[in-house]
Design brief:
Number of helices: 4
Oligomer: single chain
Helix content: 40-55%
Structural class: alpha+beta
Distance between the termini: 112 Å
Strand content: 15-25%
Largest sheet: 6 strands, antiparallel
Number of strands: 6
Radius of gyration: 40 Å
C-alpha cells in the first residue's frame, strides 16, 4: 500500500505541475501589428473602390438604357400618312415636313389639329403618324384595338408622336416593310 500512496503523490505532483505550468509567450515585434493593420486597410480600400466602380457602372447603365422609344405598331399601320418634320408652332399645329413615309404625296407644310395634346416642343424633329381630316388638315392617329374596327378610339387615350432618332427610323422601316 505504501507504494500506491507514493505513486498517487507523484501523480498529484505531476498533475499540479501540469496545471500550474503556463505556455511561454513569444515576444511580438512592435512593427507586426502595424503591418497587419495597414494590410487590412489596403484590402478595405480595394473593396470600397470596387463597390464604387460597380455602383457607378449600374447608375450609368440605368441612365443610358432606360426608357427607349418604342413605336406603337397599330398606330403606324393605321395611320393614313406618316411624316417626319420640324414643329414650328405647337398651339397652331404647324409642321414643316422633312420627309413623308407612307404616302407618295410631297408636302412642305401641314396643319395638325391636335398637336397641342401631345408633348411636342417647338423646333424639334418628330415622327408624326397622321390621319386625314377634311380641308387638308391632319390629326395625330389614334390606334384602334383589333376588336374595335368600326369604333372610334377613346378620346382620353394619349396622342403619341416620336422624336426622330436612328432607332425610331429603324423601327419604322421594319413596320412599314410588313
Amino acid at each position: 500500500m505504501a507504494s500506491r500512496k507514493k505513486t498517487g503523490r507523484r501523480r498529484a505532483r505531476s498533475d499540479s505541475a501540469a496545471i500550474t505550468a503556463q505556455p511561454q509567450r513569444t515576444p511580438v515585434a512592435t512593427g507586426t501589428g502595424e503591418a497587419i493593420r495597414s494590410a487590412s486597410r489596403g484590402r478595405l480600400v480595394i473593396a470600397v473602390s470596387i463597390f464604387i466602380v460597380w455602383g457607378v457602372s449600374l447608375a450609368s447603365l440605368a441612365v443610358l438604357t432606360a426608357n427607349p422609344t418604342t413605336l406603337n405598331r397599330a398606330q403606324i399601320e393605321q395611320a393614313d400618312l406618316i411624316v417626319s418634320g420640324h414643329i414650328i408652332d405647337v398651339q397652331q399645329g404647324t409642321v414643316e415636313v422633312k420627309q413623308t413615309w407612307k404616302s407618295a404625296v410631297e408636302l412642305e407644310q401641314i396643319t395638325v389639329r391636335n398637336l397641342a395634346d401631345t408633348k411636342a416642343a417647338g423646333g424639334s424633329l418628330f415622327l408624326l403618324p397622321l390621319s386625314s381630316m377634311p380641308n387638308g388638315v391632319y390629326e395625330i392617329a389614334q390606334p384602334r384595338l383589333p376588336g374595335q374596327r368600326g369604333k372610334r378610339p377613346a378620346a382620353d387615350q394619349p396622342r403619341r408622336i416620336y422624336p426622330v432618332t436612328d432607332d425610331v427610323l429603324t423601327q419604322l422601316q421594319a413596320i412599314l416593310k410588313r
